[in-house]
Specification:
two-stranded antiparallel sheet; EC 2.5.1.54; about 260 residues; TIM Barrel; about 15% strand; binds phosphoenolpyruvate; eight-stranded parallel β-barrel; alpha/beta; single chain; binds manganese (II) ion; about 35% helix
């Protein structure tokens, strides 16, 4: 179902604030994790002001260590709903288990499935049944063929609203957190009608490198970006090193608008 041979026309996902696919580009931005109402509202307001069309923020965080901040859970979802109310931005947030899909879908406009769950087939099926669009990250060791098969689990439930996100893969290189596979953009777009986005934040792992990767992804033809930004990144409870501060976010957005005047 993901194949261009089956559906030759690009899939376009439309939101009140913008669209992605078929030449339309969206930017989703916000903190890695929802930490407080103030932090989330502050980020939501400035990302909107500088032209983002969607708010990101994790309420359930899939952390490598069980002792790290795990997210605010349902309280975090409430905060995201308040930020949507205040700004009009639709919200994308991660769901980490099939049992929580109904809860997260009650608050979120888009369900995020993270790299670590990209082959959690029960989760993919539950997200497919949720009725919500799904933003699916590529697993850090997944081939593009495997990635498309994961998307297929969602599509097979009758949910055609899937966004594919390249967020960096594991290579021998350790300078960056992951290696952004920019070639995933043209390759995926030669195979599928689904929108293809770039997550420059998790690939770079360091805020100073995020803008270059974002621009590279868009120049390669990506249909959108999901980017982390935090009002006080050095105080962030997750991914502190890679979140843009407001000034860096503003600069990135102005460079994106120079590249894509239509955005
Ligand atoms: C995130 O978006 O904060 C996240 C955990 O991303 P990934 O699943 O790509 O690591
Ligand atoms: Mn993160």
């Amino acid at each position: 179902l993901a194949s261009l041979e089956v559906s030759p026309r690009p899939t376009v996902l439309r939101f009140p604030t913008g669209a992605t696919g078929g030449g339309e580009v969206m930017v989703a931005a916000g903190p890695c994790g929802v930490e407080s109402l103030e932090q989330t509202l502050t980020a939501a307001r400035y990302v909107k002001q500088h032209g983002a069309q969607m708010l990101r923020g994790g309420a359930f965080k899939p952390r490598t260590s069980p002792y790290s901040f795990q997210g605010l859970g349902e309280a975090g979802l409430e905060i995201l709903a308040q930020a949507r109310q205040a700004t009009g931005l639709p919200v994308v947030t991660e769901v980490v288990s099939p049992e929580q899909v109904d809860l997260v879908a009650a608050y979120a406009d888009v369900l995020q499935i993270g790299a670590r769950n990209a082959q959690n087939f029960a989760l993919l099926q539950a997200a497919g049944q949720s009725g919500r669009p799904v933003l699916l990250k590529r697993g850090m060791s997944m081939t593009l063929e495997e990635f498309l098969m994961s998307a297929e689990y969602v599509l097979a439930q009758g949910n055609m609203r899937v966004i594919l996100v390249e967020r960096g893969i594991r290579t021998f290189e350790r300078s960056t957190r992951f290696t952004l596979d920019v070639s995933a953009v043209p390759v995926l777009k030669s195979l599928t009608h689904l929108p293809v986005w770039i997550d420059p934040s998790h690939a770079a792992g360091k805020r100073d490198w995020v803008t270059a990767l974002a621009l590279a992804g868009l120049a390669a033809g990506a249909d959108g970006l999901i980017v982390e930004t935090h009002p006080e990144p050095e105080k962030a409870q997750s991914d502190a090193a890679q979140q843009l501060n407001e000034a860096q976010f503003t600069e990135m957005m102005s460079r994106i608008k120079a590249l894509l005047p239509a955005l």
